[in-house]
Amino acid sequence: MGDDSEWLKLPVDQKCEHKLWKARLNGYEESLKIFQKIRDEKSPEWSKFLGLIKKFVTDSNAVVQLKGLEAALVYVENAHVAGKTTGEVVSGVVSKVFNQPKAKAKELGIEICLMYIEIEKGETVQEELLKGLDNKNPKIIVACIETLRKALSEFGSKIILLKPIIKVLPKLFESRDKGVRDEAKLIAVEIYRWIRDVLRPPLQNINSVQLKELEEEWVKLPTSAPKPTRFLRSQQELQAKLEQQQSAGGDAEGGGDDGDEVPQIDAYELLEAVEILSKLPKDFYDKIEAKKWQERKEALEAVEVLVKNPKLEAGDYADLVKALKKVVGKDTNVMLVALAAKCLTGLAVGLRKKFGQYAGHVVPTILEKFKEKKPQVVQALQEAIDAIFLTTTLQNISEDVLAVMDNKNPTIKQQTSLFIARSFRHCTASTLPKSLLKPFCAGLLKHINDSAPEVRDAAFEALGTALKVVGEKAVNPFLVDVDKLKLDRIKECSEKVELVHGKKAGLAAEKKEFKPVPGRTASSGAAGDKDTKDISVPKPGPLKKAPATKAGGPPKKGKPSAPGGAGSTGNKSKKGLETKEIVEPELSIEVCEEKASAVLPATCIQLLDSSNWKERLACMEEFQKAVELMDRTEMPCQALVRMLAKKPGWKETNFQVMQMKLHIVALIAQKGNFSKTSAQIVLDGLVDKIGDVKCGNNAKEAMTAIAEACMLPWTAEQAMSMAFSQKNPKNQSETLNWLSNAIKEFGFSGLNVKAFISNVKTALAATNPAVRTSAITLLGVMYLYVGPSLRMFFEDEKPALLSQIDAEFEKMQGQSPPAPTRGISKHSTSGTDEGEDGDEPDDGGNDVVDLLPRTEISDKITSELVSKIGDKNWKIRKEGLDEVAGIINEAKFIQPNIGELPTALKGRLNDSNKILVQQTLTILQQLAVAMGPNIKQHVKNLGIPIITVLGDSKNNVRAAALATVNAWAEQTGMKEWLEGEDLSEELKRENPFLRQELLGWLAEKLPTLRSTPTDLILCVPHLYSCLEDRNGDVRKKAQDALPFFMMHLGYEKMAKATGKLKPTSKDQVLAMLEKAKANMPAKPAAPAKATSKPMGGSAPAKFQPASAPVEDSVSSTVELKPDPKKAKALGVSSKAKSAQGKKVPSKTSLKEDEDKSGPIFIVVPNGKEQRIKDEKGLKVLKWNFTTPRDEYIEQLKTQMSSCVAKWLQDEMFHSDFQHHNKALAVMVDHLESEKEGVIGCLDLILKWLTLRFFDTNTSVLMKALEYLKLLFTLLSEEEYHLTENEASSFIPYLILKVGEPKDVIRKDVRAILNRMCLVYPASKMFPFIMEGTKSKNSKQRAECLEELGCLVESYGMNVCQPTPGKALKEIAIHIGDRDNTVRNAALNTIVTVYNVHGDQVFKLIGTLSEKDMSMLEERIKRSAKRPSAAPIKQIEEKPQRTQSISSNANMLRKGPAEDMSSKLNQARSMSGHPEAAQMVRREFQLDLDEIENDNGTVQCEMPELVQHKLDDIFEPVLIPEPKIRAVSPHFDDMHSNTASTINFIISQVASGDINTSIQALTQIDEVLRQEDKAEAMSGHIDQFLIATFMQLRLIYNTHMADEKLEKDEIIKLYSCIIGNMISLFQIESLAREASTGVLKDLMHGLITLMLDSRIEDLEEGQQVIRSVNLLVVKVLEKSDQTNILSALLVLLQDSLLATASSPKFSELVMKCLWRMVRLLPDTINSINLDRILLDIHIFMKVFPKEKLKQCKSEFPIRTLKTLLHTLCKLKGPKILDHLTMIDNKNESELEAHLCRMMKHSMDQSGSKSDKETEKGASRIDEKSSKAKVNDFLAEIFKKIGSKENTKEGLAELYEYKKKYSDADIEPFLKNSSQFFQSYVERGLRVIEMEREGKGRIPSSTGISSQVEVTCVPAPTSTVSSIANTNGEEVGPSVYLERLKILRQRCGLDNTKQEDRPPLTSLLSKPAVPTVASSTDMLHSKLSQLRESREQHQHSDLDSNQSHSSGNMTTSSSSTANIDDLKKRLERIKSSRK
């Protein structure tokens, strides 16, 4: 029971993981209860169980598992976070629950899966279940299918994706297990329920019996559409509605919803595509041209069979289509025509959209072939053209269809109309815009008057269909002059039509009842005019109305939408004009007089031709009055103008009369219904008078009035032709001037450019300069509307003239055409036609281009030319291209039909000759301009290949391609490019150039579009792969394009598309999506036209927020106006614009303003304390995250609700950044006035500000930092101190921002950090900033290091936490950083510390690599700054600490570098000062300073002592330096250029992508295998090995666990890695470069791999393990023996220390060591024994003998003994010479052990002779000469006298005395002071007591040594040694240092070992190296450099000893010391070699 009670006490989550099943059962039961109690789905309780839910379902005990499943189900149902567990839990259910025998378990498992689907995780669940279908256990497969079936049945086919299920169905039907087959049958029936016959094709190949059974089941199913019975969480309201409706008995809405569910799956999608091009008969192209029709038939039949496949693989079908087209068009045998048509049908059906690019070629041929009468041919052609229509758009083939409509053959006309009718059925109001409808209606109207009845019927049907699709309102303008009978017929047809898209399209349009037609017919009836076609007077009523209403759009807007706006309005008017011409019959003069006399006074008519001008003038005045009073309907315009033209008419000589006459014409035109007939009567006279000086203006007014009545285009054409038929140049120039003005007033629409251009050319050739000038002015005005294309017509003018024209165009550049002010009747009604205008903004612009005369060039594109372009010889190809360029140039504007040219040019786009590619691109640019918008139809076959050229490696070719694509897109718009899969196929190509150019292009174009085709979603997967492309530019472009994709597709679709990514990629992409969501611009608003409806019109409605009342809509839409134009430039900020626009001043805002008066922060007593308590008690989430998750934001919102004003909180948590800016502005305003509130909510304010740091918007960030500066200034004034909670939840996030790329921000953050030190202790800030130095962001590291330097400078060393030593070691690591700024910052910081603290720094830093050390020394030398200056400077500079960086840099350059030694003396003597500036007071510190300063007198002696031996010591030390980098210079000479390549490849070895890694490894392997190249790797070995074991670690931790990864991939990667290593370790020179730390990690990785049980389970696993074995042997044999031995020792020590490490691991390490021991006899001479013994010493220190004996295995102790024994055996007594690197030998039993062994071996061998070593050093024994004894003892005494080695010296002396009991040490003690002698005796006594008493040396004699501190002449080593191993006690040691100086000065001790040059001080302490780990590059290098360091250290120690022994030894012994030193240096050198 004891066991029981144990687990009962555990918390629930631990019970759930307990190894006892009872405990787990209990845990699950309790969890279930907890889950049922929690009411809040977002409670933090749920998160505790996140990691456990998988264990709940996969429990190994069946009973417990059941309970776990119950609990898991409740968890999934209620927990907000449950979604995160989907993948692991469902895969657990599949593998561990579905195979259980208990039905209950399976039921619960299925329930859990369904619950996950309900909480919106359907995709993941489905993925896991589909994986389950591959399981070997049929039970699991059955359960998975059952789950899928239930899910489909309950949730419906919208939630459960059927495509992947249907794909695996045939495989399930083939299963050997009957259960699986039965279940497959059930799910097939269920799927059939949802998608009906779509399921048949994918299942057509299953067993016929099974298919028959299925058919039987399918028949039984009810025919009604199925409905889901269970809903996702997000849909559950809908469910409630549905239930209500069902209870009410109606389910109309439900039906509506589900109606669009059924066609959701397209059978085509479920099919596998078949590749047929390769299966065509080899001789197909020959046969199809054969003379015999039978052969041609065979060829076609072969194709027919192939195209019967329902889905075809995309490919290049151009040749096949060309062949079939030829048969259809040219073959005489109609049977074959029908057969070829069938083949085309098959192709179109099988390829769908991919066939679109060929549609343009085939459509005209098929339509023209309708001349055939045979029904079977007609039917085949109809099927073909209908199938082809579905692959393209009506827009693309409209040109071809319209061209055929004018054919004379009635059958062709009939079939074309019928085809149009069928096509219209597939359209909707949006896909059949007016621009398309207009030309079709025009053509069809001709057909309804055709003589052939079948043509008329077909045309009626087509028009009826159009009426049904777009509604009457849209079609009526085109049916103006259709008589009633025909109109009724059209309507009748429209009612019969059934649309493909249902009736929605028509309904919408018909609701807007628009009844101009009945009105018209009525008015014409009233007039009693029988001739409906030529209605005379009454018709103008409606005529006026219609054009007027249409043109009525723009003027109200005040601002038209550029050329398009003006164009479209006029365009409509023109149409009106064409269709309802008022051609008044010309009346005879008698009739006119009769009509005129009815309305004019009799006298008036009589006096018209009076000879007296005054009478004529009077008559005119009466005439004018009469006209002014006349009513519009009664005014007989023609009669009146006839009267005016009566003799003398326009030959009137009196200018006054003439002026009156012209004025009256203008009046009549304005007031009456003025027809063209009337106009023709007067125009001639007007043009004649227009040049008259006095009457000219009146004539112009009259012409303008006529233009208003009869439309400008007609009037202008008449006037121009009249003017140029005259000879009078004045009239010509004035007519041109009038026209220029009129165009500005009326707009350009409908003008006949062709006619004008010929007239303008005539004018330009005129001799009269005035005419030429007027012509040029007119061209300028036309340029405003037509654009640059106008110039093309005048390119052949004389250069002088052309330059004038260009100058005029230049003036007009950038101007937008003015708004038309005329052409609009005052009677216009408010029911304007804007709805139509809004539809196609480009309409007008295109219209102008349409007016340009286009040349047909297809006849010039001969087959010779095409073959030239494709010739093998590039010169001929060039000729061909030149010819094409010439043809296009000559033609200026061309028709869209260009024959075979597209295919020929397409071939040249991938020409091997880049010059030709560029030429082709230039031609394509010309082509775009020449063809205009019609180029659309060539986008697929020519435009997309241009995009492929964007992937060219040459920059200039890419630029040309981009220019061409832009030229095309300008003409075509973007829709054509984005439709279909072509663009996504391009993006799929893994060409970095192509990707970055294409994405850049899309990022530029997408923001300007209002809508995009749905096919854009196809690009998204490739966009995601670009986000992770290895090329940085591609990644950047992809990130830039992301927001614009999202703007069109929406976040949901984009996020859903990440489903197929790898988990790691998915997380990254989702994070980027979140970021992009914030940057997402709003879609461009509809063009400004829409805004003309002030009263809540339909157009702007989409931009109005729901809350805005209708009156406000004006403001909202007006603000939005700039959007579409600016969208491109704004990028992100356009979002802001629209957001502002949306914020409509709503009614509630008044109330809000009142609310805003109160305080913004409410003071809640103890609120902050309570929050801190909650956080400590884990009641709320701790504010700690890498990016803020929703739960944090919600939590903060909740906490704020009690103490922040509601309106402010809404602003603070608004989704739009503008509101955050507002919130910050308010907070700044209230800062001073609400100090208490701010302090009360400070923790929340700071937390909210941390959220702002994660925003991407710079303006918010700047505002936030501004606020923080003010806030901290306020807090310091209030003397507030930040709490720990506030600091820890704010400072780390602030520090993140130090790494911002923008300088301004970094500066602000530094300023804030500076101010923070006033409210939060600098010493506490220090660790936070220290943490910041570990960032990946190099800017952040650099800034943090600078900041640390500033802190030390301002506050002294006490800020360094946890201890100065640790802190400085951390900082010093960064000296080796790969980023230059970081290195500099680290160096500057250490220099700053040095300036404050002197050479103590070197001790604190510990061991540094050679390179780093030299950099640091160099930097210090340069800084050469007197420390005494520091404190004063700091005090001045503290307010502007931000500048301290630069000040530091200046210090570095200050004085000339002084001699280091003298400088250090100063540092010593002045060392008191830096601390004087410290803010933290230390009681005893001041006394020290005073004493130091008092005793200045002693100082003068110090320098002499230091310099005494300086040079001797320095020189030998520096000798070995060049040898350390022996490899490097050689490497640099040879390979410096390849180094960067190798670095790059090595960096890829550690890639997370297996393929990348394998590629990199292969490349390296190639290098290693070639002897001559292998040395290129020299200098990169460590780097390469690190990358390799990081990859090993990645495989072990990540890839092996990833179930999605093929294990073969992993094996492949392993074999690459191992192969590489074996290659590497066979090259001895390279293998030796591997350093200890790296070897240690490598061995760790390899041994872990050998022990990985998961590998053994794989097929080739055993092979891998054998290879690893082989590799390990190679590593042991070939590496540098010292390094590998050292690495293994450290590894063994680690593995024994690590509790998690397996005993097997340690055992393998020891086996490696045994192997090394076996190799020792051969390698002993190449080993650096000192280092090995140091490692063994550390090992024995960590594992004393007792501890080792406690190990479970006896191997470690035996291994160690064997190793030492072997070393002793091989080295003999000399082994004791190699303990030089060990600081304090007493810390381990190593020395004692060696001595014992030596003694033992000597006793055994009996040999007492001394043996010489190779290195020439000899060991002392009994027979040694007297001098040698003296030497040895002198050395021991030196150690005792030195600060570091006193203990060691005593121990050696003790050993020596014990060994040679008769040795005389008296002479050495004689010369020393009494104090020293007693110290030595006492020390020996202590050692004797310890040794005899305890039997071994204690591992640390801390207490005794510290007691001795006060009286020992040199301080003991123990303290300093401890200080350096743990880095903890540095504080006291620093003060001990200073105490020593004082003691020296006061004469307590005369050893001056402190006065040392910097290098020695730097090296004085060989820090016991911590276990090297190469994850940090620096550490990995440490071991290589340690040896060189040792040399310095030994020479060092000896130098100390030589100083200090001055008093102890005779001068002769002191010279002996120097000799000894030299010997040792020699020894080190020789060992080096």
Blueprint of the fold:
Elements: H1 2-8, H2 12-16, H3 21-37, H4 44-48, H5 53-57, H6 62-78, H7 86-97, H8 103-132, H9 138-155, H10 162-173, H11 178-195, H12 208-220, H13 236-248, H14 252-259, H15 267-270, H16 284-287, H17 293-307, H18 318-330, H19 334-351, H20 356-369, H21 375-389, H22 394-405, H23 410-425, H24 434-448, H25 453-470, H26 472-475, H27 484-496, H28 504-511, H29 516-527, H30 540-551, H31 553-557, H32 562-579, H33 589-599, H34 602-607, H35 613-629, H36 637-645, H37 655-671, H38 676-689, H39 696-710, H40 712-725, H41 729-746, H42 753-764, H43 769-786, H44 799-812, H45 834-839, H46 843-851, H47 863-869, H48 874-891, H49 901-909, H50 914-931, H51 939-949, H52 955-972, H53 975-978, H54 982-988, H55 992-1005, H56 1020-1027, H57 1032-1049, H58 1051-1056, H59 1063-1079, H60 1113-1120, H61 1123-1130, H62 1133-1142, H63 1149-1155, H64 1167-1176, H65 1190-1201, H66 1206-1212, H67 1217-1230, H68 1235-1240, H69 1242-1253, H70 1258-1277, H71 1284-1288, H72 1291-1296, H73 1303-1316, H74 1322-1332, H75 1338-1355, H76 1364-1373, H77 1380-1397, H78 1400-1405, H79 1410-1423, H80 1429-1437, ...
Helix pairs in contact: 3-6, 6-8, 7-8, 8-9, 9-11, 10-11, 11-12, 17-19, 18-19, 18-20, 19-21, 20-21, 20-22, 21-23, 22-23, 22-24, 23-25, 24-25, 25-27, 25-28, 30-32, 32-46, 33-36, 35-37, 36-37, 36-38, 37-39, 38-39, 38-40, 39-40, 39-41, 40-41, 40-42, 41-43, 42-43, 43-44, 47-48, 48-50, 49-51, 50-52, ...
